[in-house]
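Take a look at my tokenised protein here and describe the backbone shape.
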Amino acid sequence: MSENVFYFILVQTSAIVSGMLVLGSLGHMVYQRREPPSMIAWLLAIILLPYLAVPLYFILRSRKLKRREKTALKLAKKGEIPDSKATPIDMVLRNNGIAGATFGNRFFFYTDGVKAYNMLMEQIASARHTILISTYVLRPDPVGKNVLSALTRKASQGVQVKLLIDCIGSLPLYFRQKPLKSLRKAGGQVAFYMPLMTRPFQNYINLRNHRKIFIFDDCTVLSGGMNISREYMGPSPYDQRWTDILFYLEGPAVFHYREIFTEDWNHTAREELAIPDFLPEATGDATLQVVPSGPDIPSDALYEALLFAVFSARERIWIVTPYFVPDKSLMQALVIACHRGVDVRLITPASSNHLIADLSRSSFMRDLAGKGVKVLLYPHGMIHAKAMLFDDRGVVMGSANFDQRSLFLNYEVVSFAYSRSIIDPCAAWMTQLIADCTPRMQPAGRWRRISENLMSVFAPLL
């Protein structure tokens, strides 16, 4: 009899606790004013898998950090061109607290992994004072080991080396850090962003640092979509190498990348790395605007700018992205642009490196194709590049994918370029991609369509 009473009390207690957790998660959703699609997805998950979804909800929590958890990132208004010369997109970003565009930058980009690798190694070898690197993925494969060896040599020569790595993006390296031992011994510093084993119950596992920033002597920057492993770059061709972008930058815009890295490093390493008080000299004729996004930005400035670019485009909107999971507003904006006669093209790999991502994006892509948007599938491997071209007025390159995770959750950074010296080469590169693409999607079978539609419901959680 006593056992029956014990089990009865245990069951009732479990039911009460479960109910309180469910009600707590629902109350938190209302308090946070989550978007309806996100709320619906979470509600379905909680109803179907309550014992899994409720703990996950409290682990993932908010998409914006409170000030005490990470200082809001504000780029200094240094070197900005006057408001009278700013583009409408530039003004949208300025009114969201983003520093305005700067003139006098030198900018070019690589889509070849061998050239990108050689440029990275050249910049490391020529650095005299500081090497600051932030990356999402660093694998200890031959490419990663070569980069770490080069960084170790510079650290042993007295160069200040700081390496910031995302914990989840580089999870195997986080759990087995032996490849970092020599760098640390030589004086280099390594920090993992929001590590799992540190403050596990106070961590934001869902908010990852997806930024790729390589800064050398506070004078040059490499950035884009490339991480450090042989899938992205290497000293020789590799059959399974992905199509991606790494761009080179000199000039005043370097200062803003330095600000972003400094804030991320200080938050992670609990240091007070200072920001130089000088603005790099003008070395070119390109106008660029550095745009960070993520939990440390109070507004959704990048999202607003992209939405405005789509609505204001008159001739073309060409998008290159590996993952395409837009929200309803961005989807509708693309459809409306197409109906206005704008040449809207989505260039994406026929198959990405994630099956779930493919299932999630397919229903959105089919909807766009049905409304007249040209959905172009690249059959020659993975495209990891992220770029958007709007008319002949601008191009966006950086780390952000055109999905809800990049636009609303991850820490990202992109550059808006407003100069034809950048726009025209980007358009030529996209034209080459388009020529190699298949202009139609394969029809979906019954089970494939069910899977795609189901995954689109849960897309806000991905």
